[in-house]
Amino acid sequence: MRIQNNLNLILVFILWLLCFQVKAQVQTQPAFPEANQSVKIIYDASMGTSGLEGEDQVYIHIGAVTESPSSTVWSIVPFEWGTDDPAAQMTRVEGETDIWEFELTPNSFFENPNSETIYRLGMVFRNADGSKEGKSDSNGDIFVDLAQGFELNFLQPQSESQLLEIGEELQIEIISSQEAQISLSINGNELATVTSSTSLTHTFSASSSGLFEVEARAMAGEETVTQTIYLTVAGESPVLPLPAGAKKGINYVSDTETTLVLEAPGKENAFVIGDFNGWKILPEYQMNQTPDGELFWYHLTGLEPQKEYIFQYLVDGNIRIADPYADKISDPYHDQEIIDQNRHPGLLPYPGDKTNFQASFLQTAQEEFNWQYTDYEKPAPEELVIYELLVRDFDERRTYKAVIEKLDYLQDLGINALELMPIMEFEGNISWGYNPSFFFAPDKYYGSKDDLKTLIDEAHKRGMVVILDMVLNHAFGQSPLVRLYNEGDYGAPTAENPWLNTVAKHPFNVGYDFNHESTYTQDLVDSVNHYWLSEYHFDGYRFDLSKGFTQKDYGNDVEQWSQKDDSRIALLKRMYEEIQSHHPEAYVILEHLAVNSEEKILADHGLMLWGNMNHTFREMAKGQSRDFSYGYFQERAWQENNLVGYMESHDEERLMWETLNFGDRSIVDLQALPNAINRNQLLTAFYFGIPAPKMIWQFGELGYDEELNNDRLGIKPTHWEYLENEERQRLFHLYKAMIQLKNGYQVMNQPDNVSLDLEGKVKTIWLGDEALNVVIVGNFGLTNANQVSLAFPFEGTWYNYLNGDEWQVEGNSKEIELGVNEFYILTDQSLPMPEGQILEENLITAIPEKGGRGQELKLYPVPATDKLHVKVPGNMVDFRYRILDMHGKVHREGVNYGNDNILGFQLKDIRAGLYIFELYDNRHLLRKQFIKQ
């Protein structure tokens, strides 16, 4: 009997070892560990999230679960995260690279003064400092159940529900925690039994299709335990035509039913699994296949109205994917952070105990978003003043709601177009967004779908159009479009992939390159483009890496890739014309940066193109003088004013950082902030002086000076406190003044007459039409420019736009002197003066009364939250004050008598946004903007 027992134990160990080698991320010795006995935990670092693969040392972070056998709460945690505690150190298994072990006796290992029952062990693995970790396939904690008595388990298969093909065989392996009579039944028929054993093995042959309930039973004395799994043997897919009107993706038919349509040409079968069927692979959830073999579809009924369900497709028995057209994705790796930070209230947790890989949401009877502001005027392309922003870095809260609170600020600046960096579901939570996986779903980290729609609606309310940065050059490995036909779980596309190239056709590619000549890709592109314009009311797109929309194989030849490519031109024209067919007013902007002969064809066809002026302006920011006339569309012989020139973008180094770190110091110290501001003002005046659509990268108006390429893709700090900096205010007010000029006078957009003289150190621009003439002159040299003869289109009275001074011009020219960085903006009509102090030597206000210097008024903190403090200049004793919003509504006002120079205001009842604090007496008027968040 003892010999038999030993043989049984050996067999159990061999079965455990086989299972460990094939599947297990974490296994234990013994197979049924108990709390009062020694248990060895064995961890394979190459499995699960594999974050510790190849590490020299691995630590265990472990906890005891005492609430219940199914709880996931760690009640007792002995180790501190991120320390090199030797007691948490694991031992590498001899002869292995990524197999580690740790031994403990739970009842004596954990401090458990109340002697609570330990039901489970929860664990996560890490390196010494916690910067790397190993978790389950679904990025969750790993749990080992402790035996509470007589138990029975399936070693193979390990999943509760499994799919087989006809003719396939499956080895079923069962073990018990003690000797017992073990039997195996399928659909109620007993097929195998053993007595006085701890294991049973049986081979199941899938000879016919259907659902097979597999029950394991073990009896020891008077105790009986059972375990059940389900095997589905797939028959041929039912062949039925697609229901009328059904499209790829989720089709909501009624409040209780939907038709799911999956494009998967060449695949054998597909099943729908999800919350509605317990995540079981059931024959009645096998999808129909269209006669041409292109599509699978399934009509899902019995749904609860407005209830959210998470689901997947199981394709050919081993590919689990979300719906590629879903508008909301459940992610195993990153959703818990969103839930923990309450970024998407009500978000259902990923069903990590049921499945792995990304899944999709569906919800019938969704409430329609109530669009409030659909009647707004769209600027002509040349009138655009685009503000490019990354939701992640525009506000430290990193939400759509936070951006909404800043819209008044952008409106006050004069912005008429927002450009959002990509917000489609991308890999990870913290990203620039150029690593997309799902092209119809907004990323949940920034907020809900309705939060995004509210942002767009509120922008429209303020007369701003909203442009989406669209990424259709490539997809990343989590995308179902990749995973349906690829190598491994997240590997490169195979030759069968109908959307993607196996190898990118051009340099600078990231992710996996789309084949834009494929009709599958073209249909996808057209669907994506139509969707965001229709469903979210976006007003247009900026297409990332549009030069990559080619099937010519350029390899890594950057120069050849930039040459004229007729096939690429045809592909982009086709896409543009499709957009225009249903949204004729949509803006289409390309990040193309190819040779002019190609860009001219596209521009003349109606597409807009990015014009990168960053390198030139960075050189000038350091003190050089460069010709930048190429920023004007006619200098490129284009017929349409479709060149979106920019000094900065998300991709380019910041001008102010360049000036402050590398500015010339030989004569004028450009690295001193006042001089750096002067230099950047000079650049700004001339940048806006070229009549064209303009783009500003976020905080460029405040002279943002964080280095881009110090952790290029990493989070960059916001600096809203720049609004309180007297020097940076001058740059802000000049931006505002130039945008005001552009928004108010067509001569700044599409003039009748243009003269650019930008070669020398003293540069001039003349713009003219019947309504207004503008002359801009500035000194880009590092020494004073004396006896400069400034030409005017005609003689008479001209006006300094920034301070209202009159200039008398006789004989079409005037001799002037220009200091270093000095510039003038002159008009032939007296215009309203801009607000705020712009130039060092002048105080400009919108109100002509005699005023004190605005910079003496201090507001803090910036931004304000529940309370605002105001430091009043010492020369003001008896004064009035008020707080106004950008529409002129007064939210606070009062009178102060006496010498109090520190005031405090509660702001809890004021909604988030941009406000003005105004302070005045009979001699002074002081105003400052602040943001309440």
UniProtKB/TrEMBL annotation:
<protein>
    <submittedName>
        <fullName>Alpha-amylase family glycosyl hydrolase</fullName>
    </submittedName>
</protein>
<dbReference type="InterPro" id="IPR032522">
    <property type="entry name" value="DUF4961"/>
</dbReference>
<dbReference type="InterPro" id="IPR013783">
    <property type="entry name" value="Ig-like_fold"/>
</dbReference>
<keyword id="KW-0378">Hydrolase</keyword>
<dbReference type="InterPro" id="IPR017853">
    <property type="entry name" value="GH"/>
</dbReference>
<dbReference type="Pfam" id="PF00128">
    <property type="entry name" value="Alpha-amylase"/>
</dbReference>
<feature type="domain" description="Glycosyl hydrolase family 13 catalytic">
    <location>
        <begin position="388"/>
        <end position="742"/>
    </location>
</feature>
<keyword id="KW-0732">Signal</keyword>
<dbReference type="Pfam" id="PF16328">
    <property type="entry name" value="DUF4961"/>
</dbReference>
<dbReference type="InterPro" id="IPR006047">
    <property type="entry name" value="GH13_cat_dom"/>
</dbReference>
<dbReference type="InterPro" id="IPR014756">
    <property type="entry name" value="Ig_E-set"/>
</dbReference>
<dbReference type="GO" id="GO:0016787">
    <property type="term" value="F:hydrolase activity"/>
</dbReference>
<comment type="similarity">
    <text>Belongs to the glycosyl hydrolase 13 family.</text>
</comment>
<feature type="signal peptide">
    <location>
        <begin position="1"/>
        <end position="24"/>
    </location>
</feature>
